């Protein structure tokens, strides 16, 4: 065999290795199916052969032309495909089942609104198609468990849907959040009354972050209350976001299917209100004096108060800020300001975390003031067991009807399941509060 023939053989061998081995192997690495690997090898061979022309071998007067070459290639490709089919496994990493799947249940049912604050506190959503926000936040009552709830029957219906997140697994779950779809439906008048019509608006709300234990502490409840003039149709999700104990990573977990996946809230027709004397024409500033013994309806609510933590410069974690959303829960525009805010560690006030007073802000009806305070970092240590947040918010209606003061003191016990270099877990509880 001459040098020219050896050159042709080497070229042909290179093409076979490229088309029958290397290309399928690369495709296998990227989790391609055997069929795609075979087609990829065949196409690469056709491309190479077209560019270089069909190689010919001369041995003992015989010629290896295109027909025999294609037959050899098909045999090699079949062998590569058989090998790939025996070794290929489908990629199931995207569909890995979680051990928490089918252990958490979310259900909603029509009920009378509670007359006292439940043991775990009172969280509720006021739903209305007239609200401008696309993701309404939950309202958390500032009253202590067991305190009477004096719902204003003019602004709030007597019934709502009680929604419960329940953990039926063997381990506690630190945080659970559910995305709930709300469709507002028009009211269609009929001979026998009203019925729901076409969808006029859709919003999504996120349930309050729940911590679910086991046994008699496995349930977290919140309420959905329709205060708007249209029907509200609630569609429960099939999955929730979960943060298991011992990790700072969130997972998507499949819920236990509820008995009823879609529930409806009827329109709320406000009763006629008795005529009241008009407000004085000349209004004083919002800090007008209030007559002794005067009792006012509370007009503000607080949503998901939480601390912020950042990495400390010398290692560990420090308190860096506070989220303090204040919501106007009344039917009047109010002027609101933060009188003072103090954050303490282990019962001792931290001077760098003492703020206020702040400039007065106008807050329209149903809107939320997303107060966010960045502070000088205050490092924490293994001795840091509890953080206390103490603040007073003062506010008045426009026109003025008298100054109101809202005080709250909240304790945030600290646990360090992920070490001192990661943000601690907190489980806030109300220590003291009053409204005057």
Strand content: 35-45%
Largest β sheet strand count, sense and barrel closure: 7 strands, antiparallel
Task: Choose one word for the global shape.
Answer: extended
Q: What Rg is obtained from the alpha carbons, in whole angstroms?
A: 34 Å
> How many domain regions?
3
Instruction: List the helices and strands in order.
Output: HHEEHEEEEEEEEEEEEEEEEEEEEEEEE
Structural category: alpha+beta
Count the E strands: 26
Instruction: Detail the poorly predicted runs.
Output: 54-64, 91-95, 272-295
CA(first)-CA(last) distance: 106 Å
Percent helix: 10-25%
Number of helices: 3
Q: Mean pLDDT, nearest integer?
A: 76
What is this structure's SSE topology?
Layout: H1 3-29, H2 34-52, E1 58-59, E2 62-63, H3 66-87, E3 104-112, E4 123-127, E5 139-140, E6 159-167, E7 173-177, E8 179-190, E9 193-206, E10 210-212, E11 219-226, E12 231-235, E13 239-244, E14 251-254, E15 262-265, E16 300-302, E17 306-311, E18 317-328, E19 334-345, E20 348-355, E21 361-363, E22 368-379, E23 386-397, E24 404-415, E25 425-426, E26 429-435
Parallel strand pairs: 4-11
Antiparallel strand pairs: 1-2, 3-6, 4-5, 6-11, 7-10, 7-13, 8-9, 8-12, 12-15, 13-14, 16-18, 17-18, 18-22, 19-20, 19-21, 19-23, 23-24, 24-25, 24-26
Task: Please describe what this structure looks like.
The relative contact order is 0.11. With 436 residues, this protein is α+β, with helices and mostly antiparallel strands. Helix 2 packs antiparallel against helix 3. The chain has 3 domains: 90 residues, no CATH class; 174 residues, no CATH class; 154 residues, Immunoglobulin-like. The chain starts with a helix and ends with a strand. Strands 19, 20, 21, 23, 24, 25 and 26 form a 7-stranded antiparallel sheet that branches. A 5-stranded mixed sheet has the order 3-6-11-4-5, with no helix packed on it. It contains 3 helices and 26 strands. The chain is 16% helix and 41% strand.
């Amino acid at each position: 065999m001459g040098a020219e023939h050896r050159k042709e053989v080497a070229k042909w061998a290179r093409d076979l290795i490229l088309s029958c081995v290397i290309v399928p192997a690369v495709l296998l690495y990227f989790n391609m199916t055997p069929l795609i690997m075979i087609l990829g090898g065949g196409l690469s061979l056709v491309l190479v052969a077209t560019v270089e022309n069909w190689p010919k071998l001369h041995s003992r007067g015989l010629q290896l032309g295109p027909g025999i070459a294609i037959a050899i290639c098909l045999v090699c490709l079949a062998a590569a495909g058989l090998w790939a089919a025996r070794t290929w496994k489908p990629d199931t990493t995207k569909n890995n089942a979680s051990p928490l799947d089918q252990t958490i249940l979310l259900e909603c049912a029509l009920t009378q609104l509670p007359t006292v604050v439940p043991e775990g506190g009172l969280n509720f959503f006021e739903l209305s198609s007239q609200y401008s926000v696309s993701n309404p936040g939950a309202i958390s009552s500032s009253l202590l468990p067991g305190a009477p709830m004096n719902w204003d029957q003019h602004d709030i219906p007597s019934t709502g849907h009680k929604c419960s997140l329940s953990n039926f697994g063997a381990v506690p779950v630190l945080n659970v959040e559910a995305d709930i779809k709300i469709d507002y439906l028009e009211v269609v008048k009929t001979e026998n009354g009203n019925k729901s019509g076409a969808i006029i608006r859709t919003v999504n709300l996120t349930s309050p972050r729940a911590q679910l234990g086991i046994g008699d502490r496995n349930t977290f409840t919140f309420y959905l209350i329709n205060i708007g003039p249209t029907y509200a149709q609630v569609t429960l999700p099939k999955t929730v976001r979960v943060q298991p104990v011992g990790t700072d990573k969130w997972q998507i977990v499949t819920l236990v299917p509820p008995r009823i996946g879609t529930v409806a809230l009827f329109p709320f027709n406000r009763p006629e209100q008795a005529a009241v004397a008009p407000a004085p024409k000349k209004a004083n500033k919002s800090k007008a004096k209030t007559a002794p013994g005067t009792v006012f309806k509370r007009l503000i609510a607080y949503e998901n108060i939480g601390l912020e933590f950042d990495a400390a410069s010398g290692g560990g974690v420090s308190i860096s800020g506070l989220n303090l959303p204040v919501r106007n829960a009344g039917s009047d525009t109010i002027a609101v300001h933060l009188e003072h805010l103090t954050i303490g560690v282990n019962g001792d006030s931290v001077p760098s975390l003492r703020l206020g007073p702040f400039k007065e802000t106008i807050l329209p009806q149903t809107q939320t003031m997303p107060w966010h305070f960045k502070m000088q970092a205050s490092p924490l240590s293994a001795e840091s067991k509890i953080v206390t947040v103490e603040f007073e918010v003062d506010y008045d209606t426009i026109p003025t009807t008298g100054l109101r003061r809202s005080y709250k003191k909240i304790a945030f016990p600290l646990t360090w399941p992920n070490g001192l270099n990661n943000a601690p877990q907190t489980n806030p509880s109300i220590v003291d509060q009053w409204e005057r």
